[in-house]
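Re: How this chain folds, sequence and tokenised backbone to follow
Notation: Tokens come from a learned vocabulary of local backbone shapes, not from coordinates.
Start of record: The labelled sequence and token lines come straight after this line.
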Amino acid sequence: MFSFLGVPVDAAYHLVSGLTGILTPVLGGLAAAAAIGAFTMAVRVLLLPLSLRALRGQAVQARLAPQLQALRQRFARQPERLQREMAALYRREGTSLFAGFTPLLLQWPFLSVMYLLFRSPQVGGRANMLLSRALFGVPLGSHWLSGAGPLAPASLASVHGAVFLGLFALLAVLCWATARLGRQLAAHAAHAASPASPVQVTTGAGVAQAAAPAGGGGLLLKALPYLTVVIAAFAPLAAGIYLVTSLAWSLAERKLFWRSAVAATVSDSPKAPPGQEAHHSQKGRPGQKGQRGARNGRRVQKA
């Protein structure tokens, strides 16, 4: 364990242990897992201002991406001029290159404390008793790779294997939803930067496909979000519960940010002037009258 994180990890251990004791009369064997989830959500609530600031910074970076690319192409052979033009663009937009990165960096110590708490066998020189608790009979300190082989039929059919496979399935679904939402946010930012582009601001699969990268690099980018599942395969069950809770919270944050961004785009979109729609509807009425008159004239001739 990192020495400079020892004190906060010890404090977090006592908080989660106390919360587990409070929940035990109500939830029984599920108390420790519920305490891990509740503590994770409480910390994420405290970090919410930083998370939203990071999302806004990332949205601005995505919106400025076409302009930055145009500057790189224009001043490819003038690096000093390129830096000046990029700095001027950031100043005009009231942002900076690290607008989306700095808030994430400030969250790192808090998230590291929680992860270390749920994977360290010892805290403050004593055994981490949280890891001795169990979820459906599986100790929170156990690993998926422990035992007679994680892919053995006996292991897959056991409670130990079922709990970990369920955890991995939840993580995979959350990773997929997070990646899909990220593509939607990128498409929305590109549409906001270039309203004339064919990208539509919707929540359907078309937006996700429009923003999806192509080629070999795109395949790597599609696989990166699922790195969390790989980490959970080598971490204790307690750390896996933390990863599921934290990833679900991040997805909810991004979803709410996406909805607010779409709502802002719709409210700022130009609307037709009052009466214009009625004018267009009335514009066809003379023609309709003329057609009715021609039909009446033909009837008179036939008579």
